[in-house]
Write a structure and sequence with these properties.
Elements lengths: L1 H16 L4 H7 L4 H34 L10 H12 L1 H8 L6 H11 L6 H23 L5
């Protein structure tokens, strides 16, 4: 009982860091389809909350601490690139690619940096975790038996 609980906790932590690999790891560890979805959703949700709110606190601290008295140039190469990515991809695009192409920590740090004040950020990131958990678990359940 204790060993299984520790294994589930480890899989939840793995899901919060390496979400793309988590559904196949959990499913091939012997958990059922719905258990795999539940474990990866809990892990992804934990990662979203921890990294988004940690990132928000870090960026707020940095902004409060180091931006006093400095005048930033509004138009430089970096700012133009950031504005281009934000306007072309936006929050929805970032949410779609966060658990798979970007890791949850990196995607949530970017979201907390550029979409911290948008109240749709957490629901979009959570919806993406649920969507990708179902998709990746389904793909693993369909393709996994071919490799047995």
């Amino acid at each position: 009982m204790l060993i299984e609980a520790l294994q589930i906790i480890g899989l939840i932590l793995f899901s919060s860091l390496k979400f793309f690999l988590a559904p196949s790891t959990v499913y091939l560890s012997g958990y059922s389809y719905f258990e795999t979805i539940a474990i990866t959703i809990v892990g992804g949700a934990l990662g979203v909350f921890v990294f988004f709110y940690t990132g928000s606190a870090i960026f707020k601290y940095i902004g409060d601490r180091f931006s006093r008295g400095r005048i930033k140039s509004p138009f430089n190469r970096k700012n133009r690139l950031i504005i281009k990515v934000k306007s072309s991809w936006g929050l929805i695009g970032l949410s779609i690619i966060t658990p798979t192409l970007l890791s949850i920590p990196l995607g949530c740090l970017l979201a907390s940096r550029y979409f911290r004040n948008d109240r749709r950020t957490i629901p979009f990131l959570m919806g993406s975790v649920v969507f990708w958990s179902i998709v990746l678990t389904t793909l693993t359940a369909l393709v996994g038996p071919l490799f047995d």
